[in-house]
């Protein structure tokens, strides 16, 4: 199953934002164990680097990005993604861009803590807890 991770889920895990860090870290472990094919939007990587550097330091931020790039595929953000995002009924353009990057990358859904931000989504939207339950109920898992 291909899942694009919203920035907030990754930050929950990396910055240990309690109580959201536990399900977020479990989902990262699922990507690491190849139970999920994890995707990040290209803009998520730069946002994480910026925020992790502010919260920790440059060296730790570099280590986080290196690990994420080893674990996750990247959903590109190009002219088509940006233009298609303008046509969506999202109130926040950044969320529309994330959705369109996911759609163009052919993912099966998006995991986020802010499902309301994706009210106009055509892809399935999961909270971290919902996705963990789904993973546990999948055949062969």
Question: What can you tell me about this protein's structure?
Answer:
With 141 residues, this protein is an alpha/beta fold. The chain has a single domain, classed as 5'-nuclease (Rossmann fold, 3-Layer(aba) Sandwich), CATH 3.40.50. The protein is built from seven helices and five strands; from the N terminus they run βααβααβααββα. The protein has helices spanning 7-14, 21-32, 42-55, 58-71, 79-86, 93-105, 128-137; strands at 2-5, 37-41, 73-75, 109-111, 125-126. A five-stranded parallel beta sheet has the order 3-2-1-4-5. α1 (7-14) packs across α2 and α1 (7-14) packs parallel to α3. The longest helix has 14 residues, at 42-55. The protein starts with a strand and ends with a helix. The model has no long low-confidence stretch (mean pLDDT 93).
Q: What's this model, at a glance?
A:
This protein has 141 residues and is an alpha/beta fold. It has helices at residues 7-14, 21-32, 42-55, 58-71, 79-86, 93-105, 128-137; strands at 2-5, 37-41, 73-75, 109-111, 125-126. Strands 3-2-1-4-5 form a 5-stranded parallel beta sheet.
* Poorly predicted residue ranges: none
Assign a percent range to the helix content: 55-70%
Provide a count of the helices. 7
Distance between the termini: 12 Å
Which structural class fits the helix and strand makeup?
A: alpha/beta
What is the name of the CATH architecture? 3-Layer(aba) Sandwich
- N-to-C series of helices and strands: EHHEHHEHHEEH
Roughly what is the average pLDDT, rounded to an integer? 93
Query: Judging from the principal axes of the Cα atoms, what is the shape?
Result: globular
**Total strand segments:** 5
How many strands, what sense, and barrel or not for the largest sheet? 5 strands, parallel
CATH fold label = Rossmann fold
What is the CATH superfamily label? 5'-nuclease
- State the strand order across the main sheet: 3-2-1-4-5
CATH class: Alpha Beta
Radius of gyration: 14 Å
Total individual domains: 1
- Per DSSP, what share of the residues sits in E-state strands of 2 or more residues? 5-15%
